[in-house]
């Protein structure tokens, strides 16, 4: 008998749940898209019929499209085809609006912008939010920190896109400090040149700020509450009795104990952050996947829309999976749970 | 027992310490004018029921009281300085180096996410100029002192049993060879076999290192095992102080008598409890705090609070029967 | 009869003592009451103020009038009285929030109680479903549904609810798990109450603070999602919520026209809903966990 280590079982469990969730998510999307009244693919095809002048020619045209998109088969066959394409060949289909460009190519043009924006925003707001929250929680008895906290609490519930509108109003139109649209100015040439990089930073500033401010405040508020709980713990009292330096207590005893719950919170919040980020992108017409998604509906490009939804879900779920694997590193108690 | 002058020099002297907790209903006077003196190189016990204020007393001595608790008055004189008045840096310098603490909830007093070794060395490093290597070696030898295998150092707290965690705390406490160790309920929540080991360990500290160990516990049997002198606390005040033999053989205060007769022992036919309920810190009884439950209560007891009197050398009691 | 009165009085005074414990709660409830009051009575007053026209009707007044007694905030580019319009927006945003939030909370309570109480396989399955919905970014699917179905108010609220229930479910389930271990549950079981009865008669009343907090979050989440959908341009055009007004503001270039006051007024009304609900949540927390306050001595 081969003895399987507890850790291997841990990994296996996580990967299994991940795969099942992925599968469920994609299935959900498939069925939602096809069961809502007014089958979009047929609608696209019908639109073509309206555009075509000669009904005879258009019929072959339309049949061809139907075959291309697999609409001539019954729905269950479509489902199987779709799943096999997706999982076995990672084929997201062909973009309707940009025919014949495959959906993947279209997405890849915009994805780096979204990932860049999101990664920077999430990392900055989470890390600084936690440190600030711990500090404010540590000094919660001072009047200044209480005042700061109340303001933070009030502002932390503003949705990203509202913050975006506010920032555009004040900083872009009001003071003209930052541009309110796009990722870079049309007058610079893309590439690794300083003018381009500067333009990217300038244009990305407001979209990033919209997300970072509220996100940071959210982390501040939750970390403060958590810090105050930790401060009441026995091991903090013992640490103080040991006469440890304050820095060491803040770092090793408070911050480190915050990491696990806040890392879990980060993973859970990703879906929410992505949602808000997409709307923010749209407001700024920032060329990320969010704007692409909304335009894809305008142009009746359902394949593209479906593809973006998949990519989003895949990214969020994978990020969660990675976080699951990082937990044992952060908190030693998780390591022995499998045993 | 006569008192040799060198030993009788007080090391820790608590004078009229008060620790109050503010609440919407008033002040919880958890400790309300407690006084006692400990000598060098002895095991000094503080005994009393749950809720009498002994743990709060210890927190007060160590200046670990957090709001809404505060110390309105009193002195804690340690090696000539009043601990309650010195600035924080000076206090931090004294902590652990001269005065160590073995807390009540040893189970939860260890930081769950760092290794035992690190929790032992951080105190060592923050107080001196040892290198990390030296600190680690010191930690290892301390673990040996408390009869723990050296592998424990690299483990995490949740991998240890309650008794082991208690020993780790004690090992951490003795690392810098303080002259005073205060142990709050060191044997509660441990099983009897482990209890004995811990008590013996505490006693050995006195023998081996000449430390003074203050043991706070509601377990009279534990005190009987290792204490040299004992103070009995009730309702936020100290009622009686004396050597362990004197207090056990000839308890003076009626409360002490009640406590001792309540200890079960093999061969004892009856275990007598103390009638009545413990009073509330919001509203201590007038006069002598024990008078509602005292079988020898006199009229004066409900009006005037008795003061602590030294009825014989190193034998104190606060009771109208002896004034 | 007098016994009934007695219990009512008891409940009422317990309720009032809640407020005494937390000033935050008082402020939050006061703010929310003000908002709801405005939302209910403004349209009624508008009947008289706007000569029988609804605030959302287009073109009855002159465009771009400056603030005056008749139009305290002036009129907009469609000739609509701005004050009335914004308060109508407030009303609709609140309705959407309340409806969607209530449905979401209802779903989450049911799922949380069943999952927490039953445990075992049912719990694992429900937990898995909850986590999946939680992790899936809901906006794209919301967009799809909103785009292809001509949603009305109820439809939109149901769709919004379908994606916001997991958040409160986690919290309530955790609480159910704690409650399950308490002795009064064992007592009920021993005295012959079946599963359903226990769940709804014993556990549910103890969940009420958490349900209220969950409701608060659900309402906030629903209004968020609705506003987000609006900004993109989707959703029923008859439901004139603040989100829709914001979208119109963007569409008709209010920002470029430097009509900041109008936009700020919309934003402030929207934020005030969030702040009031947030304060209530925080207040509930303080009121039911006074321990926290005591420990930290605030």
Give your account of this protein's structure.
The complex is a heterotrimer of chains A (339), B (323) and C (298). By secondary structure, chain A is mainly alpha-helical. Chain A has a domain at 106-299: MetI-like fold (Orthogonal Bundle), CATH 1.10.3720.10. Chain A has 13 helices and no strands. The longest helix of chain A has 39 residues, at 246-284. Chain A is globular. The model of chain A has no long low-confidence stretch (mean pLDDT 79). With 323 residues, chain B is α/β, with parallel strands linked by helices. Chain B has 2 domains: 9-98 and 178-263 and 270-322, Rossmann fold (3-Layer(aba) Sandwich); 105-177, no CATH class. Chain B has 10 helices and 13 strands. Chain B has helices spanning 5-8, 54-61, 88-94, 116-127, 132-145, 162-174, 192-209, 220-226, 244-249, 254-261, and strands spanning 10-23, 26-39, 43-47, 69-70, 75-78, 81-82, 99-102, 180-184, 212-217, 229-234, 237-243, 309-312, 315-317. In chain B, strands 7-8-9-3-10-11-13-12 form an 8-stranded mixed β-sheet, with helices on both faces. In chain B, strands 1, 2, 4, 5 and 6 form a 5-stranded antiparallel β-sheet that branches. The radius of gyration of chain B is 20 Å and the shape is globular. The two termini of chain B are 22 Å apart. The model of chain B has no long low-confidence stretch (mean pLDDT 86). In chain C, helix 6 packs across helix 8 (195-232) and helix 8 (195-232) runs parallel beside helix 9. Residues 291-298 of chain C have low confidence and may be disordered. Chain C has one domain (32-288): MetI-like (MetI-like fold), CATH 1.10.3720.10. Helix content of chain C is 78%, strand content 0%. Classes of the chains: A mainly alpha (339), B alpha/beta (323), C mainly alpha (298). Chains in contact: A-B, A-C, B-C. At the A-C interface, helix 1, helix 6, helix 7, helix 8 and helix 10 of A face helix 4, helix 5, helix 8, helix 10 and helix 11 of C.
Topology, please?
The complex is a heterotrimer of chains A (339), B (323) and C (298).
Chain A lengths: L5 H30 L4 H12 L3 H14 L6 H15 L13 H36 L4 H13 L4 H15 L19 H38 L2 H8 L4 H39 L4 H10 L3 H29 L1 H4 L4
Helix pairs in contact in A: 1-12, 2-3, 5-8, 5-10, 5-12, 6-8, 7-8, 7-10, 8-10, 9-10, 10-11, 10-12, 11-12
Chain B lengths: L4 H4 L1 E14 L2 E14 L3 E5 L6 H8 L7 E2 L4 E4 L2 E2 L5 H7 L4 E4 L13 H12 L4 H14 L16 H13 L5 E5 L7 H18 L2 E6 L2 H7 L2 E6 L2 E7 H6 L4 H8 L47 E4 L2 E3 L6
Parallel strand pairs in B: 3-9, 3-10, 7-8, 8-9
Antiparallel strand pairs in B: 1-2, 1-4, 1-5, 5-6, 10-11, 11-13, 12-13
Helix pairs in contact in B: 4-5, 4-6, 5-6, 6-7
Chain C lengths: L1 H20 L1 H27 L32 H37 L1 H16 L2 H11 L4 H28 L2 H8 L4 H38 L9 H10 L8 H29 L1 H7 L2
